[in-house]
Write a structure and sequence with these properties.
alpha+beta, Muramoyl-pentapeptide Carboxypeptidase, domain 2, 4 strands, disordered C terminus, binds zinc ion
Length: 151
């Protein structure tokens, strides 16, 4: 069973928990490396200038902490191996579907205007701002839904 390198693990820990759950499943069957999770201002603007990203800090999905995006390179770690990216992309989607890990997962490989093969992204979880204090007691702090509603 493949495992993440130490540096891949550290990078994945900067990502949204949903991306962590997904790629911790993926690595059980497919060898891959986490190239990038969170990107700070210097890293983001460098990625923009080098043409790897179309966004400047702090507009990118990699610029939130935890990061809403992760870049993953499948084995055998060749950036120009488009077939490997396509095959890996289909596999990751299959895992996401099968494990019901992520609703609305987006893959940069599907973006026709700008194919971003290693890029996986999730929507922000709501709410993003703290609740007004007067509402706080009626919401649980984990699921952020009214207590007693849903499961
Ligand atoms: Zn990315």
């Amino acid at each position: 069973m493949p495992v993440f390198s130490r540096v891949s693990k550290v990078r994945l820990l900067t990502c949204d928990e949903r991306l962590q759950a997904l790629f911790n499943e993926v690595i059980r069957e497919r060898d891959c490396m986490i190239v990038c999770g969170f990107r700070n201002e210097v890293e983001q603007n460098k990625a923009f200038e080098m043409g790897f990203s179309r966004k400047r800090w702090p507009e990118g999905a990699h610029n939130r902490l935890p990061s809403l995006a992760v870049d993953v390179l499948p084995a055998p770690y060749k950036w120009d191996d488009i077939e490997a990216f396509k095959e890996f992309g289909a596999f990751v989607k299959g895992v996401a579907f099968e494990k019901r890990l992520i609703k609305g997962l987006k893959w940069g490989g599907d973006w026709e205007a700008f194919r971003d093969w290693p890029h996986w992204e999730v929507e922000p979880q709501v709410p993003l701002t703290p609740l007004p204090l007067r509402f706080a007691s009626t919401f649980d702090t984990i699921g952020l839904r009214p207590i007693g509603v849903g499961a």
